[in-house]
Design brief:
Number of helices: 26
Strand content: 25-35%
Oligomer: single chain
Shape: flat
Structural class: alpha+beta
Number of strands: 50
């Protein structure tokens, strides 16, 4: 924006620096006179030039940018006379000169000094500023501004506010007038379009003048709209084929094919337009360049790329239609150059760290499309790549005619870059790879991954064509699976076939087998010969010695699998089998090494059903796979493994919509193992459990046991040997015992044992976490005479907390020791106590006292006390072992469960369903007997069974055979109906022989080198009165009865200490006194005590201590629970009271 200034008084030098500092102008608002929307101009550059009369000439509209928009006249005059005589005339002449111009505004600026502003004379008469405003302001518009230079009372902003506001207003007014003039001229010329002599170039120049005016005012959006209207007009002319204003179509000059579309100075485009000599090619190049220039100013690079993607292909078709003698490869060179110049300019102009991430994503995608279009120009027509997919997919527009004879035509690209690129394979590959890499990066940045995959495929195809198999394989491996992920199987097969050929050339057998698997997975889109070829290739590869690693693949779609049935009872051997059907959809017979079916359960880990070495023909095949592991439980069918060579096919049944669940029960005569608590438990020793292994019908020649803790907080103790007992079921023979060497619990070798024999092994353990139950996993691997190796697995829990708690206390006497034992039930179920006993080899039990009478029931939180009178044995030693308090008990729950389990097992045996006994018994205990009231049973000795939950039974046996399920539920119904009430005698008869649990609590019996018996004797108990001293006889007797060594028969020094309660007694004399005593001899000491309270008082306690620290003394206080009665001391007193004041009385007073 240009402004002219006139300075007759030499003020410009004083204000030029301050004025320049306030430029460019900011915050302008244009309200068009034609009623369009208001436009805000954020910033406007202003160029200030000195006014000259020559500049007053009006230039043609096409040179509007050279005309000033605002003329400024600076005047500095403070004297009215000088203004009147000289200055006023100068201003008037300047205004006349300016107003002779068209659409130019003017402004008078009065520059006043600080002295003039403060002159008091100005208040007596009007100032020069007032006279200027009165002389030259016409109408409502104020064309006079004031600058008060060096006025310290005003801020810089206030000094210049009036001037800058009027300067903005003048510029906007002049601009608005010019726009109105231009629009009127454009409408007039456009209305003459159909008249003879009308010229589009003249119309273009006139409209572009308005565009330049908008651009000068930073109204780039308005300027772009004008160019878009010009482009629309050109398209209309092109459709009407009215190109008479253009000399020729153009595009034949040197460098036209390698031109930069954004370089507007390459040719004098505007002069050629004004001279009507510009070609269509140059005109479209110039118009597109001007549009891109404005879009860059608007910071809209994405729109530039989108317009380029439309303009470049469309204009190339126009060139092909209008130019008959087009130079060979001209369009390829021009398209390539046009695309690359747009992309490079966007990269240079748009910063990488743009504030708008969304715009950057769109820009990356648009640039990638331009790069892909540029890359298409260097494809197969130059003979550097073959005429096959995927290269033929990237040929732009219609080049079929040229491609047919491409080998016969001499290639003469006009672009130097392309000429160098097609000269050699290396140069071609470099250019092709660089452009492809930039396009791929753009597509990835914009999230258009499918387009990126397409370019990756082209690059891989070029590497494959150049026999660079390693690089081609790397690229194909990274992209081929993405096509499969999107179900583009035909394209995936094309890529995988190339990938497989690369891998075969490289000798990578593992990945080559994977590629064959991928092709067979998409075999529906393969030819029949390709199916057979890659099937043979796959199985030849996986069975060759070159493949070192195992490969895994899904069953489908090469195979379909179905489990037909599960049989859990083998009559001649331990284990079970599964019938399975596999449908082979490959056109080849397959030899496999192993076929396996896996079932899993929450009760045990897993079951594997296997068959080794077989043949699978095309079509349906049925196999029977057997399991040599005996483990009862409910199993979920999990997966199938088919192994051939190093290849394993997998099928996961858990991915199906409905789980396949089966119940598997071991044969009743198969080998079994159980984990049970020991029959005898001794506290203070290592905890143990018993593993019982029963051979059943098997002759076990070799067996190993594995034990693993299955819960935290428990560990098995490492000991040199494990003790065991071997029994024969049903013959009543004495069990044999032995020991097993132990190295670790992962493989404990068991001795051989025959049919119907049981080995019971005692295993020590310790716990680190207090828990009611810990889990143990047990595995027995054994070999039978038929040389078949079988496995039995079990995970069982053992209870680690006892339901009993025992505490004890001692009462010393001369020739006996009273032991009091308190037993408490700490569980939630009552327990039945069958017997209690105290055992010690060196002591003799004299008497067992009530309340125990042979058998009792102890309820939760109930206590039972037992007192034993103990005398020392003749052979008792000082370090004798502790005594043991032995309790034989049984939980009422175990009692009931054993009885009902016995009934169920008998009924199952009658129904020949013994294999279900373990399962039915376990669920009977855990589910069906939850409602039993054991408290009521303990009090009445009568058991009342709850109502059978038939729905729960249905759920428990849901995975059994329907007929078996009905039988099992019927047995339970009979159990709960026929045994609705059972008394204790009936239950006891059912559990015979009943072996209760024996628990031994160690009790350390104390010893003492010296036992001192202390007795306090009162002389006259009836004479004890409060406040009166009383004499007590302290009798001390020493005994060595509880000293096993008898080494303290000599006299020993002791001292007694009277423990006085000073609230009740007052001691007169020695509180502590030394004395000498000999075992078996009594000593008497007199003690004087004064009672301080009346009523029954406890006699003070006496502590006897030896002066020799090596002598351990125990004291027995005979009077520990005795009390003495203290009477009040009474006297008689008489009081006389005046009769006039009150009543006379006499009273016995207590003397305190």
């Amino acid at each position: 924006m240009e402004s002219k200034h006139s300075d007759e008084n030499g003020n410009w030098a004083n204000i030029t620096d301050d004025l320049t500092a306030r430029l460019p102008l900011r915050g302008l608002v244009w309200k068009p006179s034609n009623g369009r929307a208001t436009r805000n101009i954020a910033m406007l550059d202003v160029e200030l030039k000195r006014f000259s009369p020559e500049s007053s000439k009006n230039l043609p509209p096409v040179t509007l940018l050279q005309n000033p928009y605002l003329n400024l006249y600076f005047v500095s005059c403070e004297d009215n006379e000088s203004y009147k005589n000289t200055v006023r005339q100068q201003i008037r002449e300047w205004i006349n000169l300016v107003t002779s111009k068209k659409n130019q505004e003017w402004l008078i600026v009065h520059v006043s000094s600080q002295e003039g502003a403060r002159n008091p004379a100005k208040f007596l008469r009007s100032s020069v500023l007032d006279r200027i405003k009165a002389d030259f302001n016409t109408g409502k518009k104020d064309r006079v501004a004031q600058l008060r230079m060096a006025d310290t009372e005003m801020s810089e902003m206030e000094l210049w506010a009036d001037f800058t506001a009027k300067m903005k207003d003048g510029i906007i007014t002049s601009f608005d007038q010019n726009v109105m003039t231009f629009e009127e001229d454009i409408r007039r010329l456009d209305s003459q379009r159909q008249m003879p002599g009308w010229n589009y170039c003249t119309f273009f120049i006139l409209k572009e003048g308005l565009t330049h005016a908008y651009e000068m005012m930073n109204l780039h959006e308005e300027a772009l709209r004008q160019y878009d209207e010009l482009e629309a007009s050109f398209f209309q002319i092109l459709r009407d084929n009215a190109l008479t204003w253009y000399g020729k179509f153009g595009g034949m000059q040197e460098g036209d094919d390698d031109a930069n579309l954004l370089d507007l100075n390459k040719k004098p485009y505007r002069d050629l337009i004004m001279q009507n000599t510009i070609s269509v090619f140059d005109f479209r190049t110039y118009l597109f360049g001007r549009q891109c220039h404005l879009l860059f100013r608007l910071r809209r690079p994405v729109e530039i790329c989108h317009r380029a993607l439309i303009f470049i292909p469309a204009f190339s078709r126009t060139v092909r239609e209008h130019v008959l003698n087009l130079t060979e490869n001209f369009l390829e060179s021009w398209i390539y150059s046009a695309c690359m110049c747009i992309v490079n300019e966007c990269d240079e102009t748009v910063p990488l760290a743009n504030d708008d991430p969304h715009m950057m994503v769109l820009l990356d995608g648009a640039k990638a499309e331009l790069l892909q279009l540029a890359r298409q120009q260097v494809s197969i027509q130059h003979g550097r790549i073959p005429k096959e997919l995927p290269f033929t997919m990237s040929v732009g527009y219609d080049n079929a005619a040229q491609q047919e004879n491409s080998e016969e035509v001499e290639r003469k690209p006009m672009s130097k870059d392309l000429l160098e690129a097609v000269s050699t394979d290396e140069a071609f590959d470099t250019l092709y790879m660089n452009v492809s890499a930039r396009a791929i990066k753009g597509y990835d940045g914009s999230g258009r991954h499918r387009s990126s995959l397409l370019l990756h495929g082209d690059v891989a195809a070029l590497q494959y064509h150049r026999q660079k198999y390693a690089e081609a394989a790397r690229i194909l491996e990274s992209i081929s699976w993405r096509y499969g992920q999107n179900q583009w199987t035909v394209l995936e097969n094309e890529l995988v076939i190339k990938h497989a050929k690369c891998l075969r050339e490289l000798g990578d057998t593992a990945k080559y087998a994977q590629a064959c698997l991928t092709l067979l997975r998409n075999m529906d889109d393969l030819k029949e010969e390709d199916r057979l070829f890659y099937s043979n290739e796959l199985f030849n590869t996986v069975t060759s010695k070159d493949l070192k690693q195992e490969l895994y693949h899904e069953f489908q779609p090469m195979f379909a699998v179905k489990v037909m049935s599960v049989v859990d009872i083998l009559q001649d051997d331990d284990g079970s089998y599964v019938d399975i059907m596999i449908d082979n959809k490959l056109p080849k017979e397959i030899e496999f090494n192993k076929l396996s079916v896996r079932m899993v359960s929450g009760e045990v880990d897993e079951l594997w059903f296997n068959i080794r070495h077989g043949v699978m023909k095309p079509g349906k095949n049925t196999y029977r796979v057997t399991c040599e592991t005996s483990a009862s439980g409910t199993y979920v069918l999990e997966k199938v493994h088919l192994k051939t060579g190093k290849l394993v096919f997998l099928y996961d049944f858990l991915h199906e919509s409905r789980k396949r669940i089966f119940r598997v029960d071991s044969h009743p005569q198969a080998l079994k193992a159980t984990i049970q608590p020991p029959a005898e438990v001794t506290l203070g020793q290592a905890s143990t459990f018993v593993v019982s292994v029963s051979s059943g019908r098997n002759q076990v020649d070799e067996a190993s046991l594995t034990l693993l803790p299955a819960s935290e907080g428990m560990s098995l103790l490492n000991v040199p040997t494990l003790s065991y007992t071997k029994t024969t079921n049903g013959n009543g023979e004495t069990p044999t015992t032995g020991e097993i060497s132990l190295e670790n619990y992962e493989a404990v070798a068991l001795p051989a044992f025959g049919p119907n024999e049981t080995i019971s092994i005692t295993v020590p353990y310790e716990t680190h976490v207090n828990a009611n139950e810990h889990l143990i996993k047990l595995v027995v691997q054994y070999l039978t005479p038929n040389t078949r190796r079988h496995t039995f697995t079990l995970t069982s829990g053992i209870e680690t907390l006892l339901p009993l708690q025992v505490s004890h206390s001692f009462i010393w006497r001369d020739e006996c020791l009273n032991l009091k034992l308190s037993m408490t039930c700490t569980g939630y179920v009552p327990i039945r106590i069958f017997n209690v006993d105290l055992q010690h080899s060196a002591y003799i039990k004299n008497r067992k006292q009530p309340p125990f009478a042979g058998e009792m029931t102890l309820f939760p939180r109930q206590n039972a006390s037992f007192v034993f009178k103990i005398s020392r044995g003749k052979d008792a030693e000082e370090d004798a072992a502790p005594a043991h308090f032995i309790v034989h008990y049984q939980s009422l729950r175990d009692e009931v469960e054993k009885a009902l389990t016995a009934i169920v097992q008998s009924d199952l045996s009658k129904a020949q369903l013994n294999q279900h006994a373990l399962f039915v018994s376990s669920h009977l205990k855990s589910h069906l007997l939850r409602g039993v009231d054991y408290m009521a049973y303990g009090m009445s000795d009568e058991l009342e069974l709850p109502q059978l939950d038939v729905a729960s039974c249905e759920a428990i046996f849901a995975y059994h055979d329907a007929k078996i399920r009905e039988t099992l539920i019927g047995i339970l119904k009979d159990l709960f109906s026929a045994n609705k009430r059972l008394d204790y005698d009936q239950i006891l008869a059912l559990v015979e022989p009943n072996v209760p649990v024996q628990v031994s609590f160690p009790i350390t019996l104390p010893t003492s080198q010296m036992l001192t018996t202390v007795e306090i004797v009162v002389g006259d108990a009836q004479a004890l009165t409060v406040g009166t001293p009383a004499t007590f006889q302290l009798i001390v007797k020493h005994s060595s009865y509880w000293n096993p060594s008898k080494d303290h028969e000599k006299p020993c020094d002791f001292y007694y200490d009277i423990l006085v309660d000073y609230e009740n007694w007052l001691l007169c004399g020695h509180k502590k006194r030394l004395f000498s005593a000999k075992p078996g001899v009594s000593t008497t000491h007199a003690v004087s005590l004064v009672p301080l309270k009346t009523g029954p008082l406890h006699v003070p306690k006496i502590s006897i201590t030896s002066t020799n620290s090596s002598v351990y003394n125990q004291t027995s206080f005979v009077n520990e629970a005795e009390q003495v009665l203290i009477k009040p001391r009474t006297t008689t007193s008489t009081f006389f009271i005046d009769q006039q004041r009150g009543v006379h009385f006499a009273n016995n007073m207590v003397d305190r």
